[in-house]
Design goal:
The protein is built from six helices and seven strands. It is an alpha/beta fold and 188 residues long. The protein has a single domain, classed as Rossmann fold (3-Layer(aba) Sandwich), CATH 3.40.50.150. Strands 3-2-1-4-5-7-6 form a seven-stranded mixed β-sheet, with helices on both faces. A hairpin with a 3-residue loop joins strand 6 and strand 7. The longest helix is centred in the C-terminal third of the chain and has 13 residues. The two termini are 26 Å apart. It binds S-adenosylmethionine (SAM). S-adenosylmethionine (SAM) binds next to helix 3.
Length: 188
């Protein structure tokens, strides 16, 4: 199985604490608002957000969760996120390399925002299986990804196709526009 290397992200974060401008981009702000608006439940008990970066979506998700585990394999954005959200006592930040350090917990929400296309088909299928085996029946799994050209292993659309191939996930919400695709699946 293969995934985009840690070195790629080290280079990205060497130039900027927020290389994708998550903190100030109007495009991201709207996409994040649509993402949380698409959550079928008002409140989740225990959520997981791998690849949280500087934690902008994390902050919005935190308002919809009793507890949220936000993880990234890069310490710089994690520190930025945990400093900004220091007042939020329901968010736990952990340095984790996905899928090797997948948490040994059970979730009712898992959010894959702009991270699934960093893996190849087999690695993402494995991650989807991990999600299924660490979620309760009725849990929600969110995917939201850029649809444009990248040099990542998968396109956003292909990443969602692979997640959707898992028979334990049923599509609940589908939203696609030129720039991004947003899907919410329910764990059967
Ligand atoms: C494009 S950013 C997306 C940030 C956030 N999810 C959002 O949508 O605002 C991708 C993040 O995933 C992290 N990441 C990539 N591969 C990872 C892996 N295998 N394990 C943990 N984090 C990873 C990167 O360090 C980066 O911060």
């Amino acid at each position: 199985m293969s995934s985009t290397s840690l070195t790629y992200f080290q280079k990205m974060y060497a130039d900027s604490d927020d290389p994708w401008n998550f903190l100030h981009s109007d495009y991201e702000k709207r996409k994040y608002a649509l993402t949380v608006a698409s959550l079928p439940k008002e409140l989740y008990a225990n959520a997981f957000e791998p690849g949280c970066s500087v934690g902008v979506l994390t902050e919005l998700l935190a308002a919809r969760c009793h507890r949220l585990l936000a993880a990234d394999f890069m310490s710089i954005p994690l520190l930025c996120a945990s400093n900004r959200l220091a007042a939020r006592d329901n968010v736990q930040f952990e340095e984790r390399n996905i899928p090797d350090d997948w948490p040994d917990e059970i979730f009712d929400l898992v959010v894959l925002s702009e991270i699934a296309y960093y893996f190849d088909d087999a690695a993402l299928a494995n991650i989807t299986e991990l999600i299924v085996s660490t979620t309760v029946v009725g849990a929600h799994v969110v995917g939201v990804h850029w649809r444009g050209q990248t040099n990542y292993p998968l396109s956003g659309d292909r990443a969602h196709e692979i997640i959707a191939q898992n028979a334990a996930l049923q599509l609940k919400v589908h939203h696609a526009e030129d720039d991004f695709v947003l899907d919410v699946w329910e764990r059967a």
